[in-house]
Amino acid sequence: MLPALTGAAVLRISLFSDLYLRYVQPGLRPYLIVSGAVLVLLALCTAVAGRRAADGEGHADHADHADHGEHGEHGHGEHGHAHGPGGPRVAWLLALPALALLLFPPPALGSYSAEREAAQRAAQGVGAFPALPAGDPVDLTLAEFGSRAIYDSERSLKGRTVRLTGFVTHGDDGTWYVTRLLVSCCAADATTGKVEIRSAEAPPAGTWVTVTGTWHPEGALGTDAAWPPVLDATRVRHVEQPANPYEKR
């Protein structure tokens, strides 16, 4: 029963929906589908084997009782015991996590996780970056914006209008940030990327927004004073959470 529930839950989030993107990178989808199918197939094979074994045991007991009847015996003693359940009832508690994943998949990591995560750098060392695409506004990930703002010796963000998408987090001093969780493989290795937003009123924490604005230089390149990078907002637009809420680190 437990493998069947687990397999069904994995198939639900990976084969029949995009919910798996809350937990792992898109490239892992085929492995999740195969794993879920194997678990369901294993559960079916186990159920069929158990049914055949039970039928065989039933036929053997019937023949044994018939043999005892011919000799005037009545099946008392060692053949009179009752078969109990396959295991302790408390073992069914192991099915609860799989059932919860099947019926109520947990949400993606959000503002609470981001606020508890230490600031991470998206690049190492100061240097030149490739030129940005022509035309404004230019869509950037938070990792791309942060790398250029903190480490780009050519100051490629200067004078450009950029557009960033993420969810809102609040600082203790009234500041607010567009935030995104960055992953290499899955949600377990998530770290935080964020950009401080100025010149705009803060939406509620956890709200997904797309912010358009210009880079506001702060601190010397490659120093702690340049973190987090700052954007002077000209427009803040509420948006739906994307199917994949994470950025690839």
Outline of this structure?
The chain has 249 residues and is an alpha/beta fold.
Chart the SSEs and their pairings.
Layout: H1 2-14, H2 29-70, H3 95-103, H4 111-116, E1 138-139, H5 142-151, E2 161-170, E3 176-183, E4 191-198, E5 208-216, E6 230-238, E7 247-248
Parallel strand pairs: 1-2, 3-7, 4-6
Antiparallel strand pairs: 2-3, 2-5, 3-4, 5-6
Helix pairs in contact: 1-2, 1-3
What does this structure look like?
It comes from Streptomyces glaucus. This is TIGR03943 family protein. Keywords: Membrane, Transmembrane, Transmembrane helix. InterPro entries: DUF1980 (IPR015402), DUF1980_C (IPR048447), UPF0703_membrane_permease (IPR052955). The protein is of the alpha/beta class and 249 residues long. It folds into two domains: 102 residues, no CATH class; 138 residues, Nucleic acid-binding proteins (OB fold (Dihydrolipoamide Acetyltransferase, E2P)), CATH 2.40.50.140. Helices cover 32% and strands 19% of the residues. It has five helices and seven strands, in the order ααααβαββββββ. Strands 2-3-4-6-5 form a five-stranded mixed beta barrel. α5 links the parallel β1 and β2. α1 packs antiparallel against α2. The longest helix is centred in the first third of the chain and has 42 residues. The protein is elongated and about 80 Å long. The chain starts with a helix and ends with a strand. About 11% of the residues have low confidence.
